[in-house]
Every structure is written in structure tokens, then in C-alpha cells.
Specification:
The chain has a single domain, classed as TIM Barrel (Alpha-Beta Barrel). It is built from eleven helices and twelve strands. Strand 11 and strand 12 form a beta hairpin. The radius of gyration is 19 Å and the shape is globular. The structure holds S-adenosylmethionine (SAM) and iron/sulfur cluster.
């Protein structure tokens, strides 16, 4: 069998069919769990060019990637990013890619929603932690809620399906989950609650921010009728590290990403490519492979495939995130915006 037809399988038997690509470390917001207020961003020549990103995207697709997510930083603030998305969209269908998608804070969607749909994107994740304009400004350190709401309206008008990502933050938005569920129900959006993960210094105390979702789900079950619904995603496997429930009262789904209280690493099907061309095998471990150097040194596709296979052969079994008073330091120094959340 030619090497490109052998699927990427890690040492624990997990098929790697999902690539998340961070196209920039920059962002127009500074969410309190994600970044520091004063971030120093990378110089432009550190970033992979669109040509390099496209080439790696195609190599991964040949190696069995079925789902590709563009993320960041805020992907829609990278100049001309729609050019990259258009090109990757051409890999959909006969060329082997089943889904091209995006995670965004929504601030630029009024400009780009129609273009995303035209490129073949069918659904997107939009991060939104609160429906209160003052809280939004505080959590994002200066963002405007209405800009994201307008972006969501544009996404709907373009026919994009939307899932809202909400990081659960103690004393910040924990009183809003009922409202968010009801609002998502009215809008026709799924909702995914996420535990804050100890990635990079943010200038905030993560112990204070951390809210275990095991508690939240128990609380929500008093008010809402939740039935397990892990309908497989387009790539035919359970939707990664989230567990989903159908909310009977709204008809929409609610997911819980619980890396701290209950991880689902057994079903992990993904790897992450940073905007500088480093391949991370796990969000919560440092195992990595530099793809940019061989790419810029003229490696052939066959050589790049061998490097990627060797990296996947080192994918760790699981992360070991922990947030508590006894271990206050952040083990993983890089921010989520670097690795691509
Ligand atoms: N800027 C885009 C956005 O906000 O959707 C894409 C990149 S952002 C890093 C991707 C996702 O990671 C967002 O849903 C964000 O809420 C989440 N995130 C960032 N830092 C996190 C952390 N420390 N723990 C948990 N989720 C985090
Ligand atoms: Fe920017 Fe997304 Fe990080 Fe917020 S979560 S600071 S929007 S990259």
C-alpha cells in the first residue's frame, strides 16, 4: 500500500483525522483566560505563509485528515485570510476533505460570513462568554458585544450553522448559563461550555476563574431536560473531547468540554499546527515537531509525510491538566492562542 494511503494512527490506536491550524497568534480581543493584557506578538516572518499552510494542509489531507479547523488567535484578523480559506475549500469533496471549519470570536463575521459560506464552510464555532455588554467588555478586556452579535446575524444570513463556545468562569458568567441556553435555543445555535485550562500566563488567577463543569451540569439538570446525544460528526467519529446532550425544551444541543473534571483523551483524533509551523500532538503536553524548518529547507512531500508520521508516533496518551492551590504554576507556558484552541 503506498504510504499516503496508510491512515495516520497513533501508538494508542487512535486515527488522526482532524487538524486544527492556528493561522495567527494575534487577536483583536484579550480574553482574561486566554491572553495577557499586553501581549507581544510574533514578527511576521515567523508565521507560515499561505503557500506553506496550503501545502501542509494538502499533505495532511493525503494522510487522512477529514476535518480541518482554522483557528488562532483570531483567524479573521490575519490579512487576506479568505484567500487561504478559499484555497483549502477546494480540497473539500472529491479531494478528500469532509469538513472545513473555523473558530472565531465573531468580531469580523459581518465582513466574512458570506465568503466563508462561498468557500464551502458549513458550520463555525463562535466564542461568546456572556450576553451582558459590560461583562463582555470586562472578559475580553475591551471588546464590544454588539460587534459579535452582528457577526452572528451575518453568519445566520449566510446560512452557516453556529455553535457558541462559552468558557465557564466562576463568579463571572456562572449565573448566565440558563440565559445562554434559552438564547441559543431561540437563535438555533448549539452551545458548548468549556472548563478553563491552565495554558500560558494571563495575569489572572486561574484558581479563582476555574469552575468545574460537573457541578454546572448537575445544576442545569434541575432546570432543563437533558438527554445524551453524541451524534457523530461529519468525520464519522464522536465529536472529540466534548460530550453532548439534547436540551428537550429548546431542541438544541449543549456540550461540555471537561479536560479538568473528566477527560476524553481515549477518543482524541486531532493534532494542532501552530502559525509558526510547530505540530503539537496534544493541547496539554509539550510533545511537538517542527515542520517549518524542513519545509523551508526544501523537504519533498514524501519527506514531510515521514516527519509527520514520526511525530504522530509520539502522540501522548493523555494530558494531565490540573488547577489547584497546591500547584499554582502553569505547566504549559504557551497560550491557547498560540496552539490554536
Ligand atoms: N479567537 C478565536 C475564538 O476566540 O474563538 C479562536 C481562538 S481561541 C484560542 C479558541 C477557543 O479557545 C475559544 O473558544 C476560547 O474561548 C478558548 N480558550 C482560550 N483560552 C482558553 C483556556 N485557557 N481554557 C479554555 N478555553 C480557552
Ligand atoms: Fe482572542 Fe479567542 Fe483568545 Fe479571546 S479566546 S483572546 S478572542 S484568541
Amino acid at each position: 500500500m503506498p504510504s499516503e494511503h496508510k491512515p495516520l494512527i497513533d501508538p494508542f490506536g487512535r486515527a488522526i483525522s482532524y487538524l486544527r491550524v492556528s493561522v495567527t497568534d494575534r487577536c483583536d480581543l484579550r480574553c482574561v483566560y486566554c491572553m495577557q493584557e499586553n501581549m507581544v506578538f510574533l514578527p511576521r516572518d515567523e508565521l507560515l505563509t499561505f503557500e506553506e499552510l496550503e501545502r501542509l494542509g494538502r499533505i495532511f489531507i493525503r494522510l487522512g485528515t477529514k476535518k480541518l479547523r482554522i483557528t488562532g488567535g483570531e483567524p479573521l484578523v490575519r490579512r487576506d485570510v479568505m484567500r487561504l480559506i478559499d484555497t483549502l475549500g477546494q480540497e473539500l469533496g472529491a479531494n478528500g476533505l469532509a469538513e472545513l471549519t473555523l473558530t472565531t470570536n465573531g468580531s469580523q463575521l459581518t465582513r466574512h460570513a458570506a465568503g466563508l459560506a462561498a468557500a464551502g464552510v458549513r458550520r463555525i464555532n463562535v466564542s461568546l462568554d456572556t450576553l451582558d455588554a459590560d461583562r463582555f467588555r470586562a472578559v475580553t478586556r475591551g471588546g464590544r458585544l454588539q460587534q459579535t452579535l452582528d457577526g452572528l446575524e451575518a453568519a445566520r444570513a449566510a446560512g452557516l450553522r453556529v455553535k457558541i463556545n462559552t468558557v465557564a468562569l466562576r463568579d463571572v458568567n456562572e449565573d448566565e448559563f440558563d440565559d445562554l441556553i434559552a438564547w441559543c435555543g431561540r437563535q438555533g445555535f448549539d452551545l458548548c461550555l468549556i472548563e478553563t485550562m491552565p495554558l500560558g500566563e494571563t495575569g489572572e488567577d486561574r484558581v479563582n476563574q476555574y469552575l468545574p463543569l460537573s457541578l454546572v451540569r448537575a445544576r442545569l439538570q434541575h432546570r432543563w431536560t437533558l438527554a445524551r446525544d453524541d451524534t457523530p460528526g461529519l468525520e464519522g467519529v464522536a465529536p472529540g473531547p466534548a460530550r453532548y446532550w439534547r436540551v428537550a425544551e429548546t431542541g438544541q444541543r449543549i456540550g461540555f468540554i471537561t479536560p479538568l473534571t473528566e477527560h476524553f483523551c481515549d477518543s482524541c483524533n486531532r493534532v494542532r499546527l501552530t502559525c509558526t509551523g510547530t505540530l503539537f500532538l496534544c493541547l496539554g503536553q509539550d510533545d511537538q515537531a517542527d515542520l517549518r524548518t524542513p519545509l523551508r529547507d526544501g523537504a519533498t512531500d514524501v519527506e514531510m509525510e515521514a516527519i509527520i508520521r514520526a511525530a504522530v508516533a509520539r502522540k501522548p496518551k493523555a494530558h494531565d491538566f490540573i488547577i489547584d492551590r497546591e500547584q499554582p504554576t502553569t505547566k504549559i507556558a504557551r497560550h491557547m492562542s498560540m496552539t490554536g484552541g
